[in-house]
Amino acid sequence: MKLSVIGTGYVGLVSGVCLAERGHEVVCVDSDPKKIGLISDGIAPIYERNLEPLLRKHIGANLKATTDVRRAVLDSDLSLIAVGTPFSGSEIDLRFIREVARQIGEALREKNGYHVVVVKSTVVPGTTDEIVLPILEQASGKKAGKDFGVGMNPEFLTEGEAVSDFMHPDRIVLGGIDERTIARLEEVYAGFDQVEKLRTNSKTAEMIKYASNSLLATAISFANEIANLGAALGGIDVVDVLRGVHLSNYLTVTLPDGSRKRPGIVSFLGAGCGFGGSCLPKDVKALVAYGRKAGVPMNLLDAVVQVNDQQPKKIIALLKKHHPTLGGVRVAVLGLSFRPDTNDMRESPAIPILRALAAEGASLKAYDPAARDEAREIFRGDSVRVCENLSEALSDAQAVVLVTRWEEFRAVPELLRARDPQPLFIDGRRMLHKKSFGRYEGIGL
Q1: Is 279 a catalytic residue?
Q2: I need a labelling partner for 410 at 20 to 30 A (CA). Which of 107, 208, 312, 337 fits?
Q3: What number is the average pLDDT over the span 407-413?
């Protein structure tokens, strides 16, 4: 099948490359010539595990890149819209969605034959039918359902694991205005035979995405609220509390051989310094705002956001237990991306943590295996030294703060063992064992 994917961010580029791996002819489209140049040279403009090898494998063969929306639409059977939908503070920003819909519509005006336009970006319920579809009709002079199809196909990709998530999905949601649209969209995923596919309308497909992310965010904030209470009471370690919760039959499956396996959602029921990224914070806030606009207060999700906003402050409080005045205290912050195996720093808890420490006058070093360039851009002009390696970040540190669960950081106990005096270690993810350090503080302890 000939596909055009418009937008080459995490969702668009991963989708385009993986669809090429599945045998489709794909053209990736972006308005940024620099990104298109990199992609055409087989260089991924984002860091995502296992993405670049697949990109190099297919670019120039059944995968191409261009800035020309019109040509891409004319030369394909189905277009996936995968542009950004940032949250403005009161609602999601649909500027890019509107503009791409207009460009696709203008191309459809010239095109003979049936074409399907599918929104893959995360948009609030009603966007595909009430905004994208009318723009397509107006720009094309054609009729949706008769001359072209319109659908919604949400993504469920975890950054750092996006290639694996796309190639081995747990579900595929196919939304559309009619059976013809959904049937054509189903052809895109024809090779995913073992995956359950849900056929529905576009509005329901849009809500499924928000409901899924809101559930995960709620699990994280629930764990953090329990952690905060346990820490206040004393004598309680949230790691043990949640381990006891995980052992429930609701959260652990007993296999026929007697072994037990925990489903993926258990990983979200863990205490830490808060969730970040381009999805969970934005999507929960957008759904809260959307509900308020519809006259339905989203009290639970509003609380989820409030708990999350406060979590980075817990790190500062733990540090001040040992250093009441932070001026001049040498602090190393480990992990800058919002999660491991990505360089995405959007809404990362590391940002408010570092800025709060800088405001207190701490002497700051920071390290991340992938997000160093992004960090230097974000903290340009701030007093944060972004280090090239872990050893450099740890040298001379009086306190070490772990923010992101990179596997590389499992080496920290060994690297600090010979230090005298031992620096304070603050585990913002409860990743490392508390007995591995001479001086340890952690969320929920």
Answers
A1: yes
A2: 312
A3: 98
